Amino acid sequence: MRTRSLPQLVRRATRFCSDQSGLALIEFALTLPLFLTLSLTGAEITNYTITRMRVSQLALHIADNASRIGTGSQLQAKTISESDINDLLTGAGLQAGSLDLYTRGRVIVSDLEPMSNPNTSGKFRIKWQRCRGAITTHKSSFGEQGDTDLDGIGNTNHKATAIDTGATMFVEVFYEYQPLIETSLSPSRTMIETASMMVRDKRDLTKIYNTENAPVSSC
Question: Where does the chain cross the membrane (predicted)?
Fold first, then answer.
């Protein structure tokens, strides 16, 4: 059996250590996991941010539309009906588009009014509340129909109120985010966005009219 001398082995080891062929491939293989993780995280966070912005804008649109609904001329107080509210919620679903709002989320519309006129106590009540969406386990985080003696409605430092002769429409949109990749890369799986708009037109606040016997989108 032929054996190699020590100098030959040293020379071969030296050539092996200095051989740089395939170095780029090895470096790529080592950095690929980190590169993929950063790329996927960036894509996930971008998609999450865009989705959250869409949900936030949707809440604002619903509140704005809710403050405008009603039937009547400029010379009399407008009345609202269950049909108006149902049209409002249907329009929200159309505006949501690919978000699939009523399958993955829930919309809660609350009517906030002063306890009295003049409202000397500075307290408010939720006169009525309407909801739509398959996630029925989610209840309003800010109050339910019939709640009284409220300081307002909304987050602690940003509570919405209403003027003595008017009402404020408060909208809460709950949405279950569907990540691009089923991992923990997205910041959160649930979103809650709120918005409020004061009713600008004079509105009949005595009740919700239901002249067409429309179904009630109760909560």
Answer: 21-43
